[in-house]
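Running log. JK asked me to keep both predictions on one page so they can be read side by side. First protein, sequence followed by its tokens:
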Amino acid sequence: MPDTGLLTDEPTPWHAAMRPHGTACVELATGARLTWRELAARVAGCAANLAALPGGAVGERIAWLGRNSIDMVVVNLACQRAGAIFVPLNWRLTGPELAGVLADCTPRLLLHDREFASLAGLAAGDLVAIQDRGDAAVFAPASPLPHADLPASSPCTLLYTSGTTGRPKGAIVTRSGAFFSGLNFAFVGGVGPDCAILSDAPMFHTVGLFATVRTAVTVGATLVISDRFLPEQTLRALSDPALRITHYFAVPQIAATLRAHPDYRRADLSRLHGIYVGGAPLAPSLAEAFLADGVRLVNGYGMTEAGTVMHMPNDAAALAARPAAIGVPGPLVEVVIARPDGSAAAPDEVGEIWLRGPAVSPGYWNNPAATQAAFTAGWLRTGDAARRDAGGFYWLVDRLKDMYITGGENVYPAEVENLLRGHPAVADAAVLGVPHPAWGEAGAAFVVLRPGASLDAAGIVAFCDGRLARYKHPATVRFVDEIPRTASGKIQKHLLRPQPQE
């Protein structure tokens, strides 16, 4: 099969021909709606304007600093059509942090929302041209040009990792990788052209840009775009019969926030096929609570470097039997649980998740050392510890680097965190290993209480009695106002570690 072809092209022209008057996208903030014909025309015009930039667009990076919008979707697809590389930026970062990302990817142009004008100017300095998207020339009318004729292996997007351990890395998504990433979630989520996906996860992460946007665009589903997550707004959209939303993707913390909101009991979620979650460990108690409400919380696993990897079946009995499992691999990805020597682990043996497939990134932008450290013989070593049970279902254990050894015993913090979150007074928790004079390391728990709740450290330890082996109990407990997390829900433990321990 040649290394070029329709799979590497953005698919809006095909949908425009097949369903010209069908609704491609809806923008909740403005009420704007585009048919597939209108979306295809906007993408084609934007691509032509990108191609008209001095020196052309092929291989050039086009950065975006803004909230979810139709314009963001248009530029993302136009970059692929023109052969440019789309770089969505995390607007939660500071100016110096963004400056480091821009120095790494050296974009030709930075487009920004007016809301982030000051941040864009601070990050770009004199090195990058910036334009307010409201005035951007890329959105001017233009005659469409053919798709760029580039190899399927050419980069089309740089997704900067969440940075849970420090400086983000730019994961390369290729043209074919974008297609297969969207298709993988379409398979595991049962998404087709009669479906509608709500996208309120930031489109600077793989959940927002690929599990939602690219899945919808790949299969022709309607994309409902929300510029931010607000629980009352999300519940209103999910309940709206005119929007007929069938799929919603969130991290477990967002799902918990929805269920705790006063509007949840009045919401009509009957049209939802499921709420698909990933990005962080799922507490079984949360999955069971949703299932008792008649809502399927479908757990899964994915990552910046690979998009959607696996999900549970959307089946109530399967979800009830394994509420915390991350499911089975999608049809377009290979998964192996590997021992440290690279051999396959036995059933129920904990090992590292290794991935291979057409949606898996080939490496990191401008970072050969990180690429070499993460890849072995075509396999991506994820750094995530998991096991596969005898029935073929996978269970996420923890990040390998987060495991600590106390008194010679391995402890995976995610197991302790999930238990603590099951306490009725606990809203969130994080656990990490810290030095201990007698045991080498011991667990330090950081706990966020629910509003009005009262609990002390002794109560936390008592809750662990009979539920966890004694060596897994946290040796210290610190009550905090919040747990620092990335936009994709991962705990930023490097921000907790410097805090003094009690």
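And the second, directly underneath as requested:
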Amino acid sequence: MNTTFRAIIIDDSKVDAELILYEISKTNNVEYVIIDNENDLKQSLSEKYWDVVLCDFTMPNFSPYIVLNILREYDLDIPLIVISGTIGEEKAINLLKAGCTDFIMKSNMTRLTGVIDREIKDAGIRK
């Protein structure tokens, strides 16, 4: 399925962000911004509507929990999908309980487009 959506990619590694874009672009058209800090996230959220937020789990000064707090602060129901190479089961469960909609292991990126499609559809149903 070829769909078009808007994504905020939060990652402190340009290479990792490009790998995410490569995987997405296999089956989707995506308008995106790559950011790595709280101020840029707030600015991006203020500028336009986004369909999904894709966030690396391990960054030195930013985290999915901060992203969740900002989304709540802006009263936005945007799916947050965490992407990680090192997340353990307990940390993943805690993220889901906190409000993250899903997580993807970097070793299984083929799941990403299906998860994005499902989460965008679910967010549309909630609206």
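Observation for JK regarding the second prediction: Residues 7 and 55 are 10 Å apart (CA to CA).
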